[in-house]
Every structure is written in C-alpha cells, then in structure tokens.
Write a structure and sequence with these properties.
5 strands; alpha/beta; 149 residues; Rossmann fold; globular; binds ligand CA2; five-stranded parallel β-sheet
Length: 149
C-alpha cells in the first residue's frame, strides 16, 4: 500500500510568492504542493498537503496523521518558535518527522534560532529555499524505505 506523507504548512505560508519575496522567493504554496505531489509519485508516496494559520488545526492534522500518515514534513512557520502544543502532538506521532524552514532562521532574529519542533524532528532543513521541501520528501522516502527492509 502507498504510504502517505502529511505535508503541513503553518501560519502565513499561504502568502508565499505573494509578499516578502526577497526572503521567501517567488514560488507559491500551490507550486510547492504540486511539486511535492509529483515527486511523491516518483518516490511511491502519496502526499496530503494542508496549510493552516491556526495552531489547533495543525495539532488536529498531526493527530490525524497518527492513523493515516507514514511521515510528516512540516514547516510550522512562527509556531516553530512558540508551540509546545505542536511539539506534544508530534511526540505522539510515531513515524519520521522532517522540519523545513525556507529561510536560514539562524541568520535572522534571535527569536527564530530556537524551535520546539526541532526537539522531535528526525531531520531539519534550513535555508535551502523551497528546495527544502523536495529534500525533506527524499529524506522521508529513504527513512521509510530503510525501515521496510
Ligand atoms: O523560513 C521559514 O520557512 C519560516 O518557517 C517562515 C516563517 C517564520 O516565522 C519562521 O521563523 C521561518 C514565516 C512564514 C511567513 O511566510 C510569509 C510568506 C510570504 C509573505 C509573508 C509571510
């Protein structure tokens, strides 16, 4: 059966490609979701793409992934730096979790340097632009394939 990757994006990432293009680039979230889905097909993974500006909704989807997801690729946006609720939900998820940040958060304001989500993440991709999502999908595929052998 095909494994499902939950591709979760947090607050304001729906604005990608529309504002602050000097930091986040011109690619839209729809572009990212489409390219992860295409790559997923190549990697024999199905992708469920979801974005919310609300912390509780992200927690609910992470809980849903416990039943229907094999892995999570998540850019929690600013909630990375604040949300113990998202960390706790991810701790209850048993599959691989890869955290993505489009920008190099370590070269930005100090409040972006720490992420609660990183305490649970199996891998963290930072500052690779939107290619980070592609890298995260490939990492998830490798972890899942290794786990099945
Ligand atoms: O670099 C990343 O991917 C971030 O997760 C993006 C978050 C930021 O709070 C994190 O520190 C790092 C912000 C996402 C906001 O995205 C926008 C995109 C276009 C226009 C406005 C905001």
């Amino acid at each position: 059966m095909t494994c499902t990757v939950y591709l979760l994006n947090g607050p304001n990432l729906n604005l990608l490609g529309k504002r602050q293009t000097e930091i986040y680039g011109n690619t839209t979230l729809a572009d990212i979701e489409a390219s992860c889905s295409t790559l997923g097909t190549e990697l024999s993974l199905s992708v469920r793409s979801l974005q919310s500006n609300c912390e509780g909704q992200l927690v609910t989807w992470i809980q849903e992934a416990r039943d229907y997801g094999a892995a999570i690729v998540i850019n929690p946006g600013a909630y990375s730096h604040t949300s113990i609720a998202i960390l706790d939900a991810l701790k209850a998820f048993e599959g691989p979790v890869i955290e993505v940040h489009i920008s190099n958060v370590h070269a930005r304001e100090s409040f972006r340097h720490d992420s609660f989500v990183s305490l649970r993440a199996d891998g963290i991709i930072v500052g690779c632009g939107v290619q980070g999502y592609d890298l995260a999908m490939r990492r998830v595929a490798k972890i899942l394939a290794d786990g099945q052998s």
